[in-house]
C-alpha cells in the first residue's frame, strides 16, 4: 500500500471513529438538554428506556448507541493490537474518556449484564473447556471456586469491618459481590503468548464456577443484611439447592440440545440451537430460582464436549466461529460500559474506602490461592503467583453492585464506589502488568531457536523485497541491464544462504516447524475452500458436489490438521545428540512437562512405578539436539526455584546417590534414527 492509500485509509478510519464517538456521546448531550434519561429499573424490557418513549424511538436510540460503541470498540482493538496491551483494558480507558466527554451519568440495569452479556461470555468459555482436562484439575478448581469464594467473602468483610465503619453484614455483602473473578482481560493474553495450557485452565475454570457461587452467596448476604435473620443450616441448604439446581438444569438442557444436534444436518440450525441453549438455560434456571450462571456453565461444558462430536465439520467451524465472535461482542460492550459506569469524582470522594477494599481483596486473594491450592494435584509455585495476580474482577461484580437494593442507602452507594474502584484497579494495574509479570515468572520466554529463526526469516523477507524491487525497476526500464546483472546475482545468492540457515533453524526446533506447518496447511485448505465456492458460483459444480467436497475440506481443517500438528509437536528430534531421562515424583511431572514443551522440547512419558526414590514416580524422556543441552539444563534449574531439587547424573548413565526428589540421566547417542 503506497503513502496516498495509507492516508486515505487513515482519513476514513478517523471519520468512522468520529461517527462512533458522536453516536456514543450525542445521547448524553440530549440528556443534558432535557431529553429522556436512562432508568435502570426498567431495563429488563428495553435496557435503555426513556421517560415517555415510543417503541420506535427507543429501538432507534439503542441501535445508534450500539453502532457507536461497536465502532469505538473496533478502533480500540486496532490500537491495543499495535500497542500489545489487553483489549479489555483499552476499552475501559476509552469508556472513561467517553464518560468524561459526555458529562453525564449513565445508569444501566444489572439485567443488561447478567441476562444479555454474561451468558455468551460464560457459554463460550465453557464450550471451549475439555472435560478430560477439567476433571484432571477439578479438585483445585472447585477448592478455589467454593471454599475460595467463602474465604474471600469473610476475609474481605472482616478487613472492612475492622478498618471502616461498615457493619459486619454490610461488609460481607461487599465481600460476596467482589468474590467472583473475571480473568477475560488476561486469558486472551495467555493464549497469544503461549502460556502453559494447565495455567489457563486453572484460571478459567475457577472463574466459571466461582461466578455462580458468588452470586448465590451474594443473594444470601443481602437477605441477611436486610432481615437480620441468619441460620447456618438453612443457608447451607439454600446454597446447595440453588447451586446444585443450576448445574442440574444446565446438564439436562445440554444433553437435550446435544441430542437434537446429533439428528440435524444443518449448520445454521445447529448454531441457533446453541444460542437457545446459552440464553435459555439462564432464563429457565432463573425462573425456577436456581443459579442461571451455573446452568450456563454446565450447559456449555456438556454441549462443548458432546455437541461438536455429533456435528458435521462445516457446522463445527460455524459454531466455534460464531461463539468466538459473540464473546468478542459481549466483551466489547461489557468493558466499554464498565468505563462508562465509573464516575471518577465519586471514586475520588470515596478513596479511603476504595483503598481499604483493594487491600482487602488482595489479602483475601493471596489467602485463597496460597492457602487452598494444595488440594488435589499440586499447583506449581509459579502458577500460584500468576493465579494470585490474575484474579481480576469485572462484569459479575459490577452487575451485583448495580443490583444492590435502595434500602441500603448511603452504604449501598459506597459499596458501589468500592466495587468500581476494585474493578478499575484490577483491570488497569493487574491486567496491564500481567505480561511483564509472566515474563518475570519465566512462563513466556521465547526459546533461542525461535529468536534465531525470527531474525533469519526477517532477513529473508528483507532480501527478497530488495531483489523484487530491483527486478521491477529493471523490467520497467528504470535500471540498466549491466547494473541489474551485477546486483541480482549477489542478492539472490545471499537470499539462498539465508533460506538454508532458516531451514537449519527449523530442523533444530520442531515447535517452529509445527507453527509454520499449521499456517501452511490452514492456508492451503482455505484456498481449496475458496476455489470450491468460486466453482459453485460460476455454475461449474452442483450443490450436491459442493456439499460433499466442502465437508471433506472442513473435516481436514478441523481434524486432520490438528492431528498432524499434534503428531509433529510430540515427535522426537531428528538430530538428537543426547537422550535425557528424568525420574521424579509424579506430582511434579506436569510443571516440568509444561516448561519443556513451551520451550519447544517434546517430552515422552514412560510408565513408572516404585523405584529408588521410594514413592510413586514419573519418567520423562527427552531427545536433546546438538548444542541444546545447556538450554534444557537451564530450564530444569529454573524449576528448582519452585521447590524441586534436581541432580544430573553422569554421562555414563549412573546417577549420583542423592536424596533429591528427581534424578536426571543424560546418555550420549551414537546413532539416532526416526521411525
**Mass-distribution shape:** globular
Number of strands: 5
**In CATH terms, what is the fold-level topology of the largest domain?**
Na+/H+ antiporter like fold
Would you state the CATH class of the largest domain?
Mainly Alpha
Instruction: Estimate the strand proportion.
Output: under 5%
Can you offer a commentary on this structure?
The protein has 675 residues and is mainly alpha-helical. The chain has four domains: 3-84; 110-440, Na+/H+ antiporter like fold (Up-down Bundle), CATH 1.20.1530; 448-569, no CATH class; 576-668, Alpha-Beta Plaits (2-Layer Sandwich). The protein is 71% helix and 5% strand. It has helices at 3-32, 43-46, 55-83, 87-102, 110-128, 131-136, 138-145, 147-163, 168-177, 184-193, 197-227, 232-262, 267-287, 292-306, 313-341, 344-349, 351-372, 381-389, 395-402, 409-430, 434-440, 448-475, 481-508, 510-537, 543-569, 589-598, 629-639, and strands spanning 576-585, 604-606, 617-625, 646-648, 662-668. It has a five-stranded mixed sheet, with helices on one face. Helix 13 crosses helix 15 (313-341). Residues 27-51 and 642-659 have low confidence and may be disordered.
Features:
single chain, 675 residues, mainly alpha, Na+/H+ antiporter like fold, 5-stranded mixed β-sheet, 5% strand, globular
Short description:
With 675 residues, this protein is mostly helical. It contains 27 helices and 5 strands. The longest helix is centred in the N-terminal third of the chain and has 31 residues, at 197-227.
Write the layout of secondary structure elements.
Blueprint lengths: L2 H30 L10 H4 L8 H29 L3 H16 L7 H19 L2 H6 L1 H8 L1 H17 L4 H10 L6 H10 L3 H31 L4 H31 L4 H21 L4 H15 L6 H29 L2 H6 L1 H22 L8 H9 L5 H8 L6 H22 L3 H7 L7 H28 L5 H28 L1 H28 L5 H27 L6 E10 L3 H10 L5 E3 L10 E9 L3 H11 L6 E3 L13 E7 L7
Parallel strand pairs: 4-5
Antiparallel strand pairs: 1-3, 1-5, 2-3
Amino acid at each position: 500500500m503506497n503513502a496516498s492509500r495509507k492516508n486515505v485509509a487513515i482519513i476514513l478510519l478517523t471519520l468512522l471513529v468520529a461517527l462512533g464517538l458522536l453516536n456514543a456521546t450525542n445521547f448524553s448531550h440530549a440528556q443534558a438538554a432535557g431529553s429522556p434519561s436512562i432508568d435502570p429499573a426498567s431495563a429488563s424490557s428495553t435496557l435503555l428506556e426513556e421517560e415517555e418513549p415510543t417503541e420506535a424511538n427507543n429501538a432507534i436510540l439503542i441501535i445508534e448507541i450500539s453502532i457507536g460503541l461497536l465502532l469505538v470498540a473496533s478502533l480500540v482493538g486496532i490500537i491495543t493490537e499495535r500497542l500489545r496491551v489487553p483489549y479489555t483494558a483499552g476499552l475501559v480507558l476509552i469508556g472513561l474518556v467517553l464518560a468524561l466527554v459526555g458529562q453525564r451519568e449513565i445508569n444501566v440495569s444489572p439485567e443488561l449484564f447478567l441476562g444479555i452479556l454474561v451468558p455468551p461470555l460464560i457459554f463460550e468459555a465453557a464450550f471451549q473447556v475439555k472435560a478430560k482436562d477439567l476433571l484432571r484439575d477439578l479438585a483445585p478448581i472447585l477448592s478455589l471456586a467454593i471454599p475460595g469464594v467463602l474465604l474471600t467473602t469473610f476475609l474481605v468483610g472482616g478487613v472492612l469491618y475492622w478498618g471502616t465503619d461498615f457493619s459486619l453484614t454490610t461488609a460481607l455483602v461487599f465481600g460476596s459481590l467482589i468474590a467472583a473473578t473475571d480473568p477475560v482481560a488476561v486469558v486472551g493474553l495467555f493464549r497469544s503468548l503461549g502460556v502453559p495450557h494447565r495455567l489457563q485452565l486453572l484460571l478459567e475454570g475457577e472463574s466459571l464456577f466461582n461466578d455462580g457461587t458468588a452470586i448465590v452467596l451474594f443473594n444470601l448476604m443481602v437477605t441477611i443484611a436486610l432481615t437480620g435473620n441468619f441460620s447456618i443450616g438453612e443457608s447451607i441448604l439454600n446454597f446447595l439447592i440453588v447451586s446444585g439446581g443450576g448445574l442440574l438444569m444446565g446438564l439436562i438442557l445440554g444433553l437435550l440440545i446435544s441430542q437434537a444436534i446429533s439428528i440435524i444436518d444443518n449448520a445454521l440450525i445447529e448454531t441457533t440451537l446453541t444460542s437457545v441453549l446459552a440464553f435459555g438455560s439462564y432464563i429457565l434456571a432463573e425462573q425456577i430460582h436456581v443459579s442461571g450462571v451455573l446452568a450456563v456453565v454446565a450447559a456449555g461444558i456438556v454441549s462443548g464436549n458432546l455437541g461438536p462430536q455429533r456435528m458435521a465439520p462445516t457446522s463445527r467451524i460455524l459454531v466455534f466461529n460464531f461463539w468466538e465472535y459473540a464473546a468478542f461482542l459481549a466483551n466489547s460492550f461489557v468493558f466499554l460500559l464498565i468505563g462508562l459506569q465509573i464516575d471518577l469524582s465519586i471514586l475520588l470522594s470515596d478513596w479511603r474506602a476504595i483503598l481499604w477494599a483493594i487491600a482487602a481483596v488482595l489479602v483475601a486473594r493471596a489467602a485463597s490461592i496460597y492457602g487452598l491450592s494444595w488440594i488435589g494435584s499440586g499447583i506449581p509455585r509459579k502458577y500460584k503467583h500468576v493465579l494470585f495476580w490474575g484474579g481480576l474482577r469485572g462484569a459479575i461484580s459490577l452487575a451485583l453492585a448495580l443490583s444492590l437494593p435502595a434500602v441500603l442507602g448511603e452504604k449501598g452507594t459506597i459499596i458501589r464506589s468500592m466495587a468500581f474502584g476494585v474493578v478499575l484497579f484490577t483491570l488497569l494495574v493487574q491486567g496491564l502488568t500481567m505480561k511483564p509479570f509472566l515474563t518475570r515468572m519465566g512462563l513466556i520466554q521465547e526459546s533461542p531457536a525461535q529468536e534465531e529463526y525470527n531474525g533469519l526469516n526477517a532477513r529473508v523477507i528483507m532480501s527478497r523485497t530488495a531483489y523484487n524491487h530491483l527486478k521491477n525497476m529493471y523490467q520497467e526500464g528504470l535500471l540498466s541491464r549491466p547494473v541489474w546483472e551485477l546486483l541480482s546475482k549477489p542478492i539472490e545468492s545471499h537470499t539462498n544462504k539465508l533460506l538454508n540457515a532458516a531451514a537449519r533453524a527449523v530442523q533444530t526446533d520442531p515447535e517452529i516447524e509445527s507453527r509454520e506447518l499449521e499456517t501452511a496447511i490452514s492456508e492451503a485448505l482455505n484456498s481449496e475452500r475458496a476455489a470450491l465456492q468460486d466453482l459453485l458460483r460460476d455454475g461449474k459444480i452442483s450443490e450436491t458436489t459442493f456439499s460433499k467436497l466442502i465437508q471433506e475440506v472442513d473435516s481436514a481443517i478441523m481434524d486432520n490438521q490438528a492431528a498432524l500438528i499434534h503428531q509433529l509437536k510430540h515427535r522426537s528430534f531428528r538430530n538428537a545428540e543426547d537422550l535425557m531421562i528424568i525420574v521424579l515424583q509424579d506430582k511434579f511431572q506436569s510443571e516440568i512437562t509444561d516448561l519443556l514443551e513451551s520451550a519447544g522440547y517434546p517430552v515422552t512419558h514412560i510408565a513408572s512405578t516404585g523405584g529408588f526414590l521410594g514413592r510413586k514416580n514419573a519418567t520423562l524422556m527427552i531427545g536433546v539436539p546438538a548444542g541444546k543441552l545447556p538450554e534444557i539444563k537451564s530450564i530444569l534449574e529454573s524449576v528448582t526455584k519452585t521447590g524441586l531439587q534436581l541432580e544430573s547424573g553422569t554421562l555414563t548413565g549412573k546417577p549420583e546417590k542423592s536424596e533429591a526428589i528427581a534424578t536426571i540421566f543424560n546418555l550420549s547417542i551414537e546413532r539416532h534414527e526416526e521411525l
